Amino acid sequence: MKSLLHGIKYALIFSFLFPLLAGCSIQDNIQEQYPLESVNGSGSQTSYVYRAANSTVPETADALIKQRKPQEQSPADNERMFLVYDKEIIHLQRDSQNSEDTLVEVDSKEYVRQNYSSNFLQGYLVGSLIRDLFDNGRYNGGDYRGYTSKDIYKPQKGSYRAPTQEDKKKAPPVTVNRTGSIFKRSKDADTSFDRKTPPAATNPSKGKITRNTDSSSGGLFSKPKVGKQPASSGSWLSKPKISKPKVKIGSGRVFRRR
């Protein structure tokens, strides 16, 4: 019975966590680590370019693979690599303007179908994956070969532009100092602050309860210092004074005290 209960408990935990994990994509991890540099497309056809500073193509690929294993990956290469995920294809390219950096291009699969050349991808990905991606020749694609050569092999539609504030708002929340507390990203937000607790307000009119150290009182708390207490009182609560009802002489009737 105990084993059955443990099995049910773990099954329930997994059923709650699995939809959350499934809803996340590799782009969520990339957005948290690298700054957004350029954007192209809209709707289902999007391409986002991030910069991994001071990181080679293989180093950047290894870091992403450790965070989320791809369905397919191209062989390690210092110039470019591809990582294929469920919803995106990551195109890692050495920056021709700054060889120490890697450009991380996150393309939706629809963007790849409409812009990339299937012949170009055959040098990096397996044929079966390319056939599925282009639906056995249904999509003709284009001559695009990645962000670094966008001026020579241009995308079919649109052109890359600097990201707007609206583009940056699409990035997921980040944690402050990795404490797990989530804050909404804002351009004016200062994430390096020190929250100080305000001093407790003092009010002389309010009393304070303290533990009584006098065992003779018979109570757990000390007597309130309000007025003069009778010496014979054994407790901090004084007994109410109760007087006998007044009786009118000769009548024999008892009147209620008003």
UniProtKB/TrEMBL annotation:
Q: Where is the composition biased (Polar residues)?
A: 200-219
Q: Where is the composition biased (Basic and acidic residues)?
A: 185-197
Task: Report the InterPro entries cross-referenced here.
Answer: DUF4247
A Pfam family (short name) is: DUF4247
* Start and end residues of each stretch annotated as Disordered: 144-258
PROSITE patterns, alphabetized: PROKAR_LIPOPROTEIN
Q: Which domain of life is it from?
A: Bacteria
Query: By what name is this protein known?
Result: DUF4247 domain-containing protein
Q: Which organism is it from?
A: Paenibacillus roseus
